[in-house]
Amino acid sequence: MSDAEEGRLERLTGMLKRRGIILPAFEIHGGAKGLYDFGPVGGRLRNKVNQAWLNHWISLGNIVEISCPTVTPYAVLEASGHVGEFSDFLTDCNSCEEASRADTMLESHHPNPDSLSKSDLQQLLNSINPQCPACGASDWSPIVAQNLMFNTTIGAGNSGRPGFLRPETAQGMFTSFPALYRHNRERLPFGAVQVGKGYRNEISPRQGMIRLREFNMAELEYFIDPEIEPEHDFSDWSSIEMNLISESDGQVTMTINDAIGKNVVRHATVGFFMAKTFDFLTNIGIDSSKLRFRQHESDEMAHYASDCWDVEILGSYGWVECVGIAHRGCYDLESHEKATGKTLRARREFAQPKIVEIDGWTTNGATAGPAFRALAGAVKNAVEQLPTSCQFPTQISLENGESVTVDMEHVKRVQRTESISGEWYIPHVVEPAFGIDRIIWHLLDHAYHESAKGGDEYVTLKLSKTVAPVDYCVFPLFEKDGMGQLAKEIHKSLCSKSAIVSIYDASGSIGRRYARADEIGVPICITVDHQSLQDNTVTLRDRDSGQQSRVLISEL
RNA sequence: GCGAGCGUAGUGUAGUGGUUAUCACCGAGCGUUGCCAACGCUUGAACCCGGGUUCGAGUCCCGGCGCUCGCACCA
């Protein structure tokens, strides 16, 4: 990062803290790494982003919103693979005892240290022996694997059982698949969305909002039948060229439709969600020229995924992954099925039912049991192998070499016709997963504009109207002659409208008040002046152009 | 935390140690209707988990987990 960029970043984070958008949490107690507050302005911003996200997906028509607990029993995350796999490789500085991630320290010495095994990573660490980012020493303890989940105990004392705070919202959507399936009238495809908190006990949180220990995430799990070719309409994006970094072709620019046609994007539903994600991000104010899709390398992708694209956004910390769109196959549902023995499947009917004839023998438990005692199980197995034409009594030899006589009273005929009308299969899942905090960070980063105004530095936060935390500021030119009162009335009537936030501000010069409003990105300022008292009009000032226009109060 | 009771399809349930695990509603498909839970045919779905006793466990025993009710506590 250049000095100029570093200066901008410092001024931006300073402004965010000063104006109550994003600030370090628990600061009066010394703060806590990786934990941030959304302040009085940021809280509203976060909510609007979450809401815009939900609306964006729910409008597809086959998506439902659910909300699952963050406290999660051990067994759930064991089944999902998180207990075993979800860990980072950690090494301690022997000089200052600061823990660091071995892979991140070696990033400049290996193309993808994240993919290395523990022993390879240890070898690389030994040969490079990097400096400790905290104290500068080069003396490291052996690498240990550290699980990234916050563990907790569900219930008190001896009756408590182990659990974790969820590291992602997804598992709750997989475990409630049967309810979702039935709710959706047993028809695929459908999806479930959830916004909420996730927790990862990061070893070294840094870069502000980029790596957090408690974070806001928003995930869609979209369930599809792998045997049905997906049909998506890409006409909305036919003229939009997207920046793609593909595993095989490197950096390319093409429409999403072409990318699917050329198999750069391997699955149409993944491509569809990439396009929808592009829309979402640009609608809320991400600069499309600072947005790219990067395909995971084979060694970077989770072993079960068949294709995965990250959305990376360019900001003060470089290109940062903010969204992951993964084709997860049947891995998740299958894992929970194996762990629980419950059915997590969807059904497809055959065009024609299959007819299966069953005709043979089995034992009659009520007579064969007492007759053969300990051998009853083996006799049953042997009898079920007998041909339909078998005559009783008959002599049969068992697996253990013994020979028994089976009478007619020990057996019964099994004869029926089964008609099999369909089959059960495990749906595949395509999952777009959004890091809301990272997206909000980049919204702010992209919206933050510095300019010179009369020799002073002037800040405008050019947030999109869909996410701007404050919709209107109402200013009386002066708080006298009834202007203050009229302005308060306007403010009050705006506040009474649902989903509208207005701020009343009468302190300081009018220019200073515009500047305050611009700094938190208020799109429109309303000013009550002398003329307002006579003709019931006010001036509307547009944030980005500074243009003013007069409108009737009744038309606001 | 204490005491009592209970865990069978999505829901509510039946099930003398041997059934292809009952019934109803329900869901899906097709048809007849045609506007606020209609009808017919086809079809789908379950014994909480783990041990034990037994030739054989939904059923008996033990442990775990969960739920309900009362008491205690509580945002």
Task: Give an overview in words.
By secondary structure, the chain is an alpha+beta fold. It folds into 4 domains: about 5-85 and about 150-335 and about 430-440, Bira Bifunctional Protein, Domain 2 (BirA Bifunctional Protein, domain 2, 2-Layer Sandwich), CATH 3.30.930.10; about 90-145, Herpes Virus-1; about 350-420, no CATH class; about 470-555, 3-Layer(aba) Sandwich (Rossmann fold). Helices cover about 30% and strands about 30% of the residues. The protein is built from 17 helices and 28 strands. The strands form 8 sheets. A 9-stranded mixed β-sheet has the order 3-10-11-21-16-15-14-12-13. Strand 18 and strand 19 (about 405) form a beta hairpin. Helix 12 (about 365-370) crosses helix 13. The longest helix is centred in the first third of the chain and has 17 residues, at about 40-60. It is elongated, with a radius of gyration of 32 Å. The model has no long low-confidence stretch (mean pLDDT about 90). The chain binds one RNA strand of 75 nucleotides through helix 8, strand 17, helix 12, helix 13 and strand 20.
